[in-house]
Each structure stands twice: as C-alpha cells, then as structure tokens.
Amino acid sequence: MADVSRLPAALVAHWDWQRHAACRDLDLAMFFHPDGERDPSRSQRVTRAKAICAECPVAAACLKWARQVEEPYGIWGGEGEDERRAFLRRRRSAHPVPAA
C-alpha cells in the first residue's frame, strides 16, 4: 500500500487536473500492470499507455503529482514505475536527508 502521509489535503485544486486527463474515461488497467505480466505484453501495454500520456493536456501535472506523492505503481504523466524510482533516487542523492 502507498504511503498516504505525503498526500496533500483533499482540496479540489490538488485534483482538478484529473478532470482533463486523456485517460479519464479509459480502462485504467492499461496504466497498471496485472500480477505476473511479462514481456512482450508488458512492453506493449506500457507503450500504449505512454502514447496516451504523450497527447494528454495535463501530463506535466500528472507526472508532478506522481513524483510528489512517490506513487509506486503505474504509468503517470508518461513515466513508468522504474523511471520514477530512478528519478527519486537521483533526487534523494542530490538532496540527502541529514541523520537524526
């Protein structure tokens, strides 16, 4: 389960961008891998999802959100799970948290 402590308060301003998302009325299974999914099925699903994100008017807001809350699953703003984890590792190494 995702750590919800990083989520901002439930304000419309934090979520309003989702109303304009290209994926809003699509089957969200395309953006989240099922258990046991392997290539080539996974690569094809990710390619289709990222193509939708590439045309999405709110992809930047979506990606910003996923990075902010450290979303562990799915394609968000055209970025996959592995890409987000790599981004977060780079961000943490550039700005390490001091030991308590």
* Beta-strand content bin: under 5%
Order of helices and strands: HHHH
Extended strand count? 0
Q: Which stretches are low in confidence, meaning pLDDT under 50 for 5 or more residues running?
A: none
| Backbone shape | globular
What is the helix fraction of residues, given as a range?
40-55%
> Which structural class do you get from the secondary structure elements?
mainly alpha
Mean pLDDT value: 88
Radius of gyration: 15 Å
SS field, number of helical segments: 4
What's the N-to-C terminus distance? 26 Å
Provide the number of structural domains: 1
Largest sheet: none
Describe the structure.
By secondary structure, the protein is an all-alpha fold. It has one domain. Helices cover 42% and strands 0% of the residues. It has helices at 12-15, 41-54, 59-68, 81-94. The protein is globular, with a radius of gyration of 15 Å. It starts with 11 loop residues before the first helix and ends in a 6-residue tail after the last helix.
